[in-house]
Design brief:
alpha+beta; 9 helices; 19 strands; elongated
């Protein structure tokens, strides 16, 4: 991967040079990891004008959860433990002869930005914007491989839970067990806080697990994902507990399933983000559920669980091949229950078989 990270840094360097910046400072942790291979806590990455340098507030401890920095990359540890790497980077850039430095203003506080100006008053600070985030949207096959393993781990953890006795257990207990199973199967940890919602709680769009116990006849709505080598996937499934589903549960589930299938089938290189959202949203609006829908149908995944692109009604842009996204429509009826179906897929051209489904757990409405 050392060569891959060098290529990524080279692309960013070229874009900065075209914009008139002699050097760039990357401080957002996911962006640092993308370009450097690892992001020790507090580390920042300085690109050019000489060699690239990873500046760390303390010596990297080799924590697996933060990745391993590129061996070809120079690593500088600040001499003062409480020093600020971004201030040190500004001084280093100025000392290397740079007259301008592009920084991630959306990641820096005003105080840090001012401190950089004081440390290197002759250095012009420009905004790098979301250049690295945009570069991260299209994934290479090694990144997709990590996502595929993350999805396999997630499917394993969920599948094992579904084979256990669920009635009488609390939402909180089930969420903790799922996260433990993710780690048992090789994940670095959960990709995000696991959501388990039962009965009327499944009628809330963003529910945190509570001490409510699972009862027969409940909808059980689960959303989880594994973090594997920094790459994060997402799956959401809804089941019925202990008995045959009621008619209203079947009808609601079939509606959301059809909406999710429409969104998945719309994924193709060149498809507009908002058209994918529309393909999943339109059936739910026609059925009268438009007012309570989530603001987006899906989003990109990778080193962060919520990345660009955004699959939303007003989103601008079109999909490329090799972009992993979620498709996750849901209908939530407050006080009654709800259904959410969520998959992680990779956009592929039709000649390659169309969208690649990574999360394989059945979408059949099971009575557990």
């Amino acid at each position: 991967m050392s060569e891959v990270h060098a290529v990524r840094r080279g692309l960013l360097r070229d874009r900065c040079a075209a914009a008139g910046s002699a050097a760039a400072l990357v401080s957002r942790p996911a962006n640092v990891r993308y370009l450097a291979g690892g992001a020790p806590p507090g580390a920042v990455l300085l690109l050019g004008p000489g060699e690239d340098v990873l500046l760390c507030p303390r010596a990297p401890a080799g924590e697996s959860g933060h990745g391993r920095p590129d061996e070809a990359l120079r690593v500088d540890v600040l001499p003062v433990p409480d020093g600020d790497p971004v201030v040190a980077a500004a001084g280093l850039a100025a000392a290397s002869g740079a007259d301008s430095l592009a920084v991630e203003e959306h990641d820096l506080t005003v105080a840090r930005h001012r401190a950089m100006g004081k440390a290197a008053p002759r250095l012009r600070l420009a905004d790098l914007g979301f250049t690295v985030e945009q570069q991260r949207i299209v994934k290479d096959e090694e990144e997709i491989g990590c996502l595929r393993i993350a999805a396999e781990i997630t499917d394993q953890a969920l599948g094992e839970l579904l084979e256990s006795i669920l009635v009488g257990r609390t939402e909180r207990h089930l969420a903790l067990e799922l996260e433990r199973r993710l780690v048992d199967h090789g994940a670095d940890g959960p990709a995000f806080a696991t959501s388990v919602a039962t009965g009327p709680n499944s009628g809330q769009g963003r529910h945190r697990p509570s001490d409510r116990r699972v009862e027969e006849g409940d909808f059980l709505s689960v959303r989880l994902g594994a973090n594997y080598h920094g790459y994060r996937c997402e799956i959401g499934r809804t089941f019925v507990i202990g008995t045959a589903p009621a008619q209203w549960q079947i009808e609601l589930y079939d509606l959301v399933f059809a909406a999710q299938r429409g969104g998945r089938e719309a994924l193709a290189p060149g498809a507009a983000y908002r058209d994918v959202d529309r393909a999943a949203r339109h059936p739910l609006e026609l059925a009268g559920y438009g007012e309570g829908l989530q603001p987006r149908t899906g989003h990109g995944v990778g080193l962060e669980i919520e990345e660009d692109p955004q699959l939303a009604p007003t989103a601008m842009g079109k999909l490329d091949a090799c972009v992993p996204v979620t498709v996750e429509p849901g209908v939530h009826l407050p006080g009654r229950g709800g259904v959410r179906i969520d998959d992680t897929l990779v956009v592929r051209p039709e000649a390659d078989g169309g969208p690649e489904l990574l999360t394989m757990t059945t979408k059949e409405l099971l009575a557990l």
